[in-house]
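Key result, reporting period 2: structure in, sequence out.
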């Protein structure tokens, strides 16, 4: 109730100035950058843990039970931090963006209500699962983990539905500036962006979690910790990530074509395309010069943008000048670099995945090279960078709109002062929170394997 009351009070504030719009956007961006990787672990990690426990039930091998049990402790730590960061995000929506919440809360509020319900169920079953290892039969314990997977997926789906609606709004009528005839189900699940964002994020979750886990054990291998337990703990998440990484290239193509159809100006920002062009080129790297409207120092590939966006090398792509300057996304270079970082890392991870799958298929083993281990160590952080870059593309590319084509971000922001102070304080909170998480994970990594350590090695 306290959270609801604070949000209600916040939406009653009338924004009078936007002196701190940039700080509010940066504050929200910082919260997303911290929370979104944790969301990946909330979506994919329980399913991976449950898969490992299923391997134990099928084979009777104690290694799998020990691995699932240790990973469940990590799941609890990450969930606890995710609770804190998710709560902060809830406060920020009401405090920083009262115009948005006040005008459209009836439209997307159902999504957040379902997300909250899913969160509480997830917390309950995580408690049952973690404390039920030695208190429940193996099959019932496995069954208690299924709701964790389902509620994690459901909660994330609701947030993605709201974001999809912000990019492709519908399910309401706007009469004299007032939102009427609200249809929440249509708004959440009838928007075109929901489906590709949903699949894109879920596949990304398995890529991030898989490569982060594999990278952690590859780091241990480089430091001399390498037995049967470590080999298994590396191979399972790595294989999952390597199956997901090539799939993400196809999903990314789908997402890009949806953006081209429904947000053509965002597409122009991704490339830095100044004028509407038939057979538009794609530039690799380079710097967008806002004075000339040209890409400097980039490698131009003729007609590639048209082909990737519409599967037609001669298709016409709208440029930035097709809309007034105030309606253009920005900063352009931020969007371009984030997009190219996402695509570049995604392509690199797909190439690494292809190498792994080739070795598993032809030689029935992983590559045996110190350079491969080093690549795995880098793959985890790189996957997180690609994930955050993708959300930068989505959110910054939608600017200057908070609800695309309906409400501008400067109409949604609070008029209250003190945003820079809150921004600085939140940075300190997050730094402390991440330091505490790192300490907890380090302690867990040093926990002995248990009485069956010899079996596991």
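The corresponding designed sequence is given below.
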């Amino acid at each position: 109730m306290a959270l609801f009351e604070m949000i209600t009070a916040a939406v009653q504030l009338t924004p009078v100035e936007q002196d701190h719009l940039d700080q509010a956007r940066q504050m929200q961006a910082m919260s997303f950058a911290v929370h979104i990787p944790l969301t990946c672990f909330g979506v994919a990690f329980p399913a991976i843990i449950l898969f490992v426990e299923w391997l134990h039930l099928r084979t009777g091998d104690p290694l799998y039970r020990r691995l699932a049990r240790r990973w469940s402790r990590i799941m609890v730590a990450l969930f606890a931090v995710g609770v804190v960061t998710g709560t902060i995000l809830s406060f920020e929506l009401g405090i920083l963006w009262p115009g948005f919440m006040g005008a459209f809360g009836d439209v997307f509020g159902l999504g957040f209500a379902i997300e909250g319900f899913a969160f509480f169920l997830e917390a309950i079953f995580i408690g049952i699962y973690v404390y039920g290892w030695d208190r429940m039969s193996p099959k019932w314990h496995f069954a208690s983990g299924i709701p964790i997977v389902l509620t994690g997926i459901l909660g994330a789906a609701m947030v993605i539905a709201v974001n999809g609606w912000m990019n492709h709004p519908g399910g309401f009528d706007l009469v004299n500036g007032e939102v009427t005839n609200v249809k929440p189900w249509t708004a959440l699940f009838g928007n075109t962006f929901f489906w590709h964002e949903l699949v894109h994020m879920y596949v990304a979750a398995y890529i991030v979690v898989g490569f982060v886990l594999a990278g952690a054990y590859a780091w241990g291998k480089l430091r001399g910790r390498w037995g049967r337990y470590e080999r298994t703990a590396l191979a399972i998440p790595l294989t999952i990530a390597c199956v997901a990484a090539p799939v993400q290239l196809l999903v990314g193509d789908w997402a890009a074509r949806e953006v081209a159809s429904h947000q053509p100006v965002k597409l122009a920002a991704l490339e830095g395309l100044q004028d509407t062009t038939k057979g538009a080129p794609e530039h690799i790297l380079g710097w967008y010069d806002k004075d000339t409207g040209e890409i400097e120092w980039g490698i131009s590939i003729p007609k590639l943008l048209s082909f990737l966006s519409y599967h037609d090398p001669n298709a016409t792509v709208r440029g930035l000048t097709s809309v007034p300057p105030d309606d253009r996304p920005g900063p352009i270079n931020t969007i371009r670099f984030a997009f190219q970082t996402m695509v570049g890392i995604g392509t690199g991870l797909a190439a690494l995945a292809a190498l792994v799958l080739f070795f598993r298929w032809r030689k029935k083993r992983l590559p045996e090279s110190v350079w491969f281990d080093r690549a795995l160590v880098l793959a985890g952080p790189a996957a997180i960078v690609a994930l955050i870059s993708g959300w930068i593309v989505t959110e910054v590319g939608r600017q200057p709109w908070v609800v695309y084509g309906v409400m501008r971000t400067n109409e949604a922001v609070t008029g209250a002062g003190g945003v820079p102070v809150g921004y600085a304080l939140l940075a300190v909170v997050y730094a402390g929170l991440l330091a505490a998480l790192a300490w907890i994970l380090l302690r867990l990594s040093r926990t002995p394997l248990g009485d069956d350590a010899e079996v596991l090695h």
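Residues 1-16, 451-457 have pLDDT under 50 and may be disordered. The chain has two domains: 1-12+20-190+418-448, 240-415. This case is discussed further under Risks and Mitigation.
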